[in-house]
Design brief:
Chain lengths: 192, 601
C-alpha cells in the first residue's frame, strides 16, 4: 500500500471501508449458514448421536468468557486509534490477539482430549459437524490473531493517525463477527 | 480542500516500474486486462477440451488426430491415442468447470466490471484497489491449480462441474475422484473467494463512488447489471465455499457429510467418508450437496447472464440510436431476476428425489422467471423498433445475444415443467439449453463488448472485415452445433456418456453427432480469426478517436485509451445514459449528447 508518503483519509473513504466490511460480513454469514442448516438436518435425522453436554462444556465456557473479554480490548483499541494513540492501540490489539491465542490453545486441548478417546471427525456425523464447524471458526480466529499482530506492529510504528485508522475499525468489525459466530456455535453444539 | 482535490488524494499515483505497472498493479484498467488475457488462455484450453469431447462423440474410441499421436498414453489418451472413458469424463468435467469458473464469470464480471464500472460512474478507480489486485492474484493460482490437475498421476476430476457425490466424494470410485477432485475443490474455493472479494468491491464502488449527478436512474445498464451481479457474488458465492469446504472435509478428514450409511463398493465393502473402506460413519445425505451446490449455482447462471444483458443493452441502444425502451422496467426486471434467482434452485433436482409439493413450488418459481426475462426481451425489441439500426460488428453480436437468448430462455421454460424435465433431464437437451444461454447469450455479448470497447481499452480499432467474417462463421456454426442437440436430447442421448454409439437406440442418431462435431470444429477454428484480429489490432490497428461510436456514457468523454487517472476532473452528470436522438441532442446539433455535457445557454 505504501505508494504515498502521507495518508489522509477522507470521510468518504472511511464510509466505503465500513460499507465494504459489512458486505464482507454478510458473505461470511452466508458461508456459515449452510453449516448450521446442515447441522440442524443431521440432528433431526440422527437424534440418537448426540445429547446435551456431551462435549467439554467447561472449556467451551471459559472460551466464551475469553471472547467476551477480548471484545472489551478490541473496543479500547478502536477508540484509542480514533484518538490517535498508537501505543495504546497497539497494546489493546495485542491483548485481543492474546485472548484469541488463548482461545485456540484451549480449543486444541479440547480437541486432543476428544482424539484421545477416539472421537474423530469420521466417528459419526455429529462429530463431523462438531469438528467442521469449530474448525472453520477456529481458522477465522487464527486469521484474526495474525491480522491483529500485524496491525499492532503497524500501530506501534505510528502508521495510524486520527485521520487514518480504518484498518483498525475493520479489524474490529471482523472480530465482532468471529465472536458472534461463536455465540451461536456454543449453545447449539454444547448445550442443546 | 476542493472536492476535486479530495478525490485526487485517495488515488494511487502512477507507478513507473514494470512490476507495479503490469504485474502488481492497482489500476482497475490493468487488472481488467490481466483478467482478460488469463481468461483468453483458459478459453483456449476449455475450447480444446470441447473439441476432444466432440471428437469422441463423432468417432468414438478412434485415435485423435495430432493431439492423440503427440500425447498417446498421457492425459486422456490411451496408447493408441484414443480417448479413454475416464479421460472422457475428465474432459467434460474440466471443460464445464473451466468455462464457467475460469472463463465466463471472470470475462463478464472481472473484465468488463473492472474496466467499465469506474469509467461509467465517473470515478478514478474502484473502492478498494488493493483488494482488486488481490482478487486477480487469487484467481490466477486457482486457475493454475485447476490446470495442473490434468497432470496428476490419476488425472483431473471426473465428477462433472456439478461434482455430485458419492462419485466425487468416495475417493476410490473413479481415478479422478482422488487427488484430482481435491485440486478441483481447492481451485473452485479459491476462485470463489476471489469472486466474493470482487463482488464486495464492485458493490461498494457503485453504491458509494458515483460522480455528482449520477443518480440511480442515470446509471448505464452495464453498471446496473454489474451491481445486481455483485449482490449474487457477495451473497451466493460463499455458499459455494461452504459446499467445497464440506466436501473437502469428507475427502481429507473422512467425515461423511455427503455419504449415506451403508454405502457399499463393488466388493460389497462398506464405504465411508473419503472412501475409507470399513468406515461405517456414514449418516450423510448426497442430496444435501445438491441443495447447497445449486443454491449457489443457479444464481451463478445469472452471474453468467446478467452482465451479458447489460452489455447487450448498451450495444442495442447505441446502434439503434434510440433511448433504451423502458429503462426502469429494465432495471426492475434484473432485480426481480435476482430475487427469484435465489428460490428456484430445486429445478435442477426434479429427478433427484424431492417431494412433489416442493417440485411444484420450484416449478412455479422457475416459470415466474420467464416474466422478467420476457420483459427484457420486449424492451430490447422496443428499443430496436423504428430505430436507425447500424449493423456494426458489435451490434451484430448484440442482436445475436438477443435472438439466441430467446431460444435458450424458451427451452428453459420447457425444462421448468417437471413432467417434461423428468424425460429430458441429463440429456443433450440440457446441453443445448445452457449453451444457447451461455454461449449464444453471454459469449456473443462478451464478443460484442470486446469489439465495442476495444478502442477505449487499446486506443486502436479492430479490423471490421475480419470482425464480420468471425461473427458470421461463429453465428452459423454455433447454431449448427447446438440446435441439433435438442433433437439428440429428445431422442434420449445422455450427457456425460462416452459412448454415443454404445446403445442401439442411439445409433440411428449418430449422423447428427457427426454433423455437430464437424460444425463444432469449424466453430472452434473460427475463433482463431478473433484472437488474431484482437492481438494484431492491439499492436497494428488504426488509431481510434475518443468516441468512435458517438455514444453517450462517461467512458467516451475521455481520450482513447483511457488515461491513468481516468478523469482529469470528476465529471458532473446532467442526463441519462441513452439520450440518443432526443431534444437535448438536437440542441447541440447531433443525435447524441454526452452525459456530462452542459447545454449551451
Ligand atoms: C428463462 C429462464 C430460464 C429457465 C426457465 C431455465 C430453466 C432451467 C432448468 C429447469 C434447468 C434444469 C434442467 C435439468 O437439469 O433437468 C436448467 C439448467 C441449466 N440452465 Fe437454465 N433456465 C433459464 C435460463 C438460464 C440462463 C440465463 C442460464 C445461464 C446463463 C442458464 C444456465 C443453465 C445451466 C448451465 C444449466 C445446466 C446445469 C447442469 O445441470 O449442468 N439457464 N435451466
Ligand atoms: Cu437453474
Amino acid at each position: 500500500m505504501e505508494h504515498t508518503a502521507v495518508r489522509v483519509e477522507t470521510e468518504e473513504r472511511l464510509e466505503n471501508v465500513s460499507f465494504g466490511m459489512w458486505l464482507f460480513i454478510s458473505s461470511e454469514i452466508m458461508f456459515f449458514t449452510p453449516f448450521f442448516a446442515m447441522y440442524i438436518i443431521m440432528r433431526n435425522a440422527h437424534p440418537e448421536l448426540s445429547h446435551p453436554h456431551m462435549l467439554n462444556v467447561p472449556i467451551a465456557s471459559v472460551n466464551t468468557f475469553i471472547l467476551v473479554i477480548s471484545s472489551l480490548f478490541m473496543t479500547n483499541a478502536v477508540n484509542a486509534s480514533k484518538s490517535g494513540d498508537g501505543v495504546k492501540t497497539s497494546n489493546n490489539l495485542l491483548l485481543t490477539a492474546l485472548c484469541g491465542l488463548a482461545f485456540l490453545v484451549l480449543k486444541a486441548v479440547e480437541y486432543s482430549g476428544e482424539i484421545k478417546e477416539d472421537l474423530l471427525p469420521s466417528t459419526n456425523i455429529f462429530y463431523s459437524c462438531y469438528y467442521t464447524m469449530t474448525g472453520f471458526h477456529g481458522l477465522h480466529i487464527l486469521i484474526g490473531v495474525i491480522v491483529m499482530g500485524i496491525l499492532a506492529w503497524r500501530a506501534r510504528r505510528g502508521d495510524f493517525t486520527k485521520t487514518y485508522n480504518s484498518p483498525i475499525e475493520v479489524c474490529g468489525l471482523y472480530w465482532c463477527l468471529v465472536e458472534v459466530v461463536w455465540f451461536f456455535l456454543f449453545p447449539v453444539l454444547y448445550l442443546v | 480542500m476542493t472536492e476535486h482535490a479530495a478525490h485526487a488524494e485517495e488515488i494511487h499515483p502512477e507507478p513507473k516500474d514494470f512490476f507495479h505497472k503490469y504485474v502488481w498493479s492497482y489500476d482497475h484498467k490493468v487488472i481488467s486486462k490481466q483478467y482478460l488475457f488469463t481468461a483468453f488462455f483458459f478459453l483456449i484450453v476449455g475450447g480444446l477440451l470441447a473439441m476432444l469431447i466432440r471428437w469422441q462423440l463423432a468417432y468414438p474410441f478412434q485415435p485423435v488426430p495430432v493431439l492423440g499421436s503427440l500425447l498417446h498414453g498421457h492425459l486422456f489418451f490411451d496408447d493408441s491415442g484414443a480417448i479413454t472413458p475416464e479421460g472422457y469424463l475428465q474432459l467434460t468435467t474440466m471443460h464445464g468447470s473451466i468455462m464457467i469458473f475460469f472463463v465466463m464469470i471472470p470475462m463478464l464480471v472481472a473484465v468488463f466490471g473492472n474496466y467499465l464500472i469506474p469509467l461509467q460512474i465517473g470515478a478514478r478507480d474502484v473502492a478498494f484497489p488493493l483488494l482488486n489486485a488481490l482478487s486477480y492474484w487469487l484467481y490466477l493460482p486457482a486457475g493454475i491449480l485447476a490446470f495442473s490437475s490434468f497432470f496428476l498421476a490419476k488425472g483431473a476430476a471426473e465428477a462433472g462441474w456439478t461434482g455430485y457425490p458419492p462419485l466425487s466424494d468416495v475417493s476410490s470410485s473413479t481415478p479422478g475422484s482422488g487427488s484430482g477432485q481435491i485440486f478441483w475443490l481447492l481451485s473452485v474455493f479459491l476462485v470463489g473467494f476471489s469472486s466474493i472479494l470482487g463482488g464486495v468491491n464492485f458493490l461498494t464502488t457503485i453504491v458509494k463512488m458515483r460522480a455528482p449527478g449520477m443518480t440511480w436512474d442515470r446509471l448505464p445498464l452495464v453498471t446496473w447489471s454489474q451491481l445486481i451481479t455483485a449482490v449474487f457474488q457477495a451473497l451466493a458465492t460463499p455458499v459455494l465455499g461452504s459446499a467445497m469446504a464440506l466436501m473437502f472435509m469428507d475427502k481429507v478428514f473422512h467425515t461423511s457429510f455427503f455419504i449415506p450409511s451403508g454405502l457399499q463398493n463393488s466388493d460389497d465393502q462398506l464405504v465411508g467418508g473419503g472412501g475409507l473402506v470399513g468406515n461405517a460413519g456414514g449418516g450423510g445425505h448426497p442430496l444435501l450437496w445438491q441443495h447447497i451446490f445449486w443454491f449457489y449455482s443457479h444464481p451463478a447462471v445469472y452471474i453468467l447472464i446478467l452482465p451479458g444483458m447489460g452489455l447487450a443493452s448498451e450495444l442495442i441502444a447505441t446502434f439503434s440510436r434510440k433511448p433504451i425502451f423502458a429503462y426502469k422496467p429494465m432495471v426492475g426486471s434484473m432485480a426481480t431476476i435476482m430475487g427469484l434467482g435465489f428460490i428456484v434452485w430445486g429445478h435442477h433436482m426434479f429427478v433427484s428425489g424431492m417431494s412433489p409439493a416442493m417440485g411444484m413450488g420450484f416449478m412455479m418459481t422457475t416459470m415466474l422467471i420467464a416474466l422478467p426475462s420476457g420483459v427484457k426481451v420486449f424492451n430490447w425489441l422496443g428499443t430496436l423498433h423504428r430505430g436507425s439500426i447500424h449493423l456494426t460488428v458489435p451490434m451484430l453480436h448484440g442482436l445475436s445475444f438477443l435472438s439466441m437468448f430467446i431460444i435458450g430462455g424458451l427451452s428453459g421454460i420447457f425444462m421448468a415443467a417437471t413432467p417434461v424435465d423428468i424425460y429430458i433431464h441429463d440429456t443433450y437437451y440440457i446441453i443445448a439449453h445452457f449453451h444457447y444461454v451461455v454461449f449464444g447469450g453471454s459469449v456473443f455479448a462478451v464478443f460484442g463488448g470486446l469489439y465495442y470497447w476495444f478502442p477505449k481499452m487499446w486506443g486502436r480499432k479492430m479490423n471490421d472485415k475480419l470482425g464480420y467474417l468471425h461473427w458470421f462463421l461463429t453465428f452459423v456454426t454455433f447454431n449448427c452445433t447446438f440446435f441439433p442437440m435438442h433433437l439428440l436430447g429428445e431422442g434420449g442421448q445422455m450427457r456425460r456418456l462416452a459412448t454415443s454409439t454404445g446403445y442401439e437406440y442411439l445409433q440411428p442418431m449418430q449422423d447428427i453427432n457427426v454433423f455437430i462435431s464437424v460444425s463444432a470444429f469449424i466453430l472452434g477454428a473460427s475463433q482463431i480469426i478473433f484472437l488474431f484480429n484482437y492481438f494484431y489490432s492491439i499492436v497494428k490497428g488504426p488509431k481510434a478517436e475518443a468516441n468512435p461510436w458517438n455514444a453517450i456514457t462517461l467512458e467516451w468523454t475521455i481520450p482513447s485509451p483511457a488515461p491513468y487517472h481516468n478523469f482529469d476532473k470528476i465529471p458532473t452528470v446532467y442526463r441519462g445514459p441513452y439520450e440518443y436522438s432526443g431534444e437535448e441532442a438536437e440542441k447541440v446539433g447531433r443525435d447524441w449528447i454526452a452525459q456530462d455535457e452542459k447545454l449551451p445557454a
